[in-house]
């Protein structure tokens, strides 16, 4: 079983409003509410791939209950840890006429030191039968930058995938996760300088390997992804497509790779499935809502080159 961890779970609310205007009364033609947050996106794609998966993290209040109920309806088993307060709602207003997307993100509940300690124990107990644990997204308020590092250290037997940014990524890498998956922006923030062409991307990946990470995957949007592990270096290139929304492509890549590793696939095969999931995610408006038919159709079109 795969476990995905979303410390800052949310309900993603999307309103479709034609000709959205500031300082006016706007009427929504459509409204969609689904559980969101990057680890939940990973769980959704793993579920689509037919992989047993459980989602965990912190939830709070009514919004938290909604997250759990909706995930259960989607067939995603979940084992969240409840805290005080109210889980966040992230609002997006999509205007198909003006072609704009306006977002309003709540910050979510603060996590106390006591809740974090209790969650750490909860996580260890619920992952007994889960060889791979994926941590995705930013840290909620109240937690120090080394929160992921601490959680990783409490799971020494697990293959941990860490997909985060900024200080949480820096500190987390210090705990030697099995895999990291920065995108270009996250990589540049990590190194504090531009990382432009393929040789620079590879050199950055080599450095992350030298810090003790076993698998480094650097995602490059439509240009694909680079994977490094041991002596292996691969470049995956997805087919060219008309993207509808690329939000959650990285989460989908993580899901495809995690599911592959769970079923004993090698790095090249994992990168191929991950890339197909990422590209399929670009074909749908929602994050992590890639269709299995798209994934299967794209899979043989992903080009894998040994570098
Ligand atoms: N426009 C696109 N066309 C085809 N494939 C894409 C496109 N955008 C992303 N992908 C696929 O998805 C993978 C991950 O994308 P990306 O690098 O944008 O992740 P990300 O920035 O971490 O996304 P997020 O954090 O929103 O999930 C890419 O390596 C690629 O395989
Ligand atoms: Mg990402």
Largest sheet: 11 strands, mixed
Number of domains: 1
According to CATH, the fold-level topology is: UDP-N-acetylmuramoyl-L-alanine:D-glutamate ligase
Q: Identify low-pLDDT runs.
A: none
Order of helices and strands: EEEHEHEEEEHEHEHEHHEEEHHHE
- In which range does the helix fraction lie? 25-40%
* Average pLDDT, all residues: 97
What binds here, in terms of ligands, is: adenosine-5'-triphosphate, magnesium ion
The CATH architecture assignment turns out to be 3-Layer(aba) Sandwich
Structure description:
It is a single chain. This protein is an alpha/beta fold. It has a single domain, classed as UDP-N-acetylmuramoyl-L-alanine:D-glutamate ligase. 36% of the residues lie in helices and 25% in strands. The chain contains 10 helices and 15 strands. The strands form 2 sheets. Strands 1, 4, 5, 6, 9, 10, 11, 12, 13, 14 and 15 form an 11-stranded mixed β-sheet that branches. Strands 3-2-7-8 form a 4-stranded mixed β-sheet. The mean pLDDT is 97. The structure holds adenosine-5'-triphosphate and magnesium ion.
């Amino acid at each position: 079983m795969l476990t995905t961890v979303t410390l800052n779970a949310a309900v993603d609310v999307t309103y479709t409003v034609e000709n959205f205007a500031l300082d006016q009364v706007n009427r929504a033609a459509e409204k969609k509410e689904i559980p969101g947050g990057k680890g939940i996106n990973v769980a959704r794609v793993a579920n689509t791939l037919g992989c047993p998966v459980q989602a965990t993290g912190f939830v709070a209040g009514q919004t938290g209950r909604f997250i759990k109920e909706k995930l259960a309806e989607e067939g995603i088993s979940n084992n969240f840890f409840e805290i005080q307060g109210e889980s966040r709602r992230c609002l997006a207003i999509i205007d198909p006429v003006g072609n704009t997307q306006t977002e309003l993100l709540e910050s979510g509940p603060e996590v106390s030191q006591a809740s974090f300690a209790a969650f750490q124990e909860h996580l260890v107990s619920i992952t007994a039968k889960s060889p791979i644990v994926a941590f995705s997204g930013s840290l909620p308020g109240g937690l120090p930058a080394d929160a992921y590092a601490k959680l990783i250290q409490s799971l020494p037997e697990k293959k941990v995938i860490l997909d985060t940014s900024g200080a949480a990524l820096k500190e987390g890498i210090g705990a030697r996760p099995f895999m990291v998956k920065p995108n270009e922006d996250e990589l540049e923030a990590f190194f504090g300088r531009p990382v432009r062409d393929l040789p620079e991307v590879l050199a950055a990946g080599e450095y992350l390997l030298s810090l003790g990470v076993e698998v480094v995957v650097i995602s490059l949007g439509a240009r694909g992804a680079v994977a490094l592990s041991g002596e292996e270096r691969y470049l995956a290139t997805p087919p060219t497509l008309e993207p509808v929304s690329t939000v959650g492509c990285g989460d989908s890549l993580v899901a495809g790779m995690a599911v592959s590793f769970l079923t004993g696939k090698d790095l090249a095969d994992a990168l191929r499935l991950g890339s197909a999931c990422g590209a399929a995610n670009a074909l749908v408006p929602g994050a992590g809502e890639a269709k299995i038919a798209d994934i299967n159709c794209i899979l043989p079109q992903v080009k894998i080159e040994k570098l």
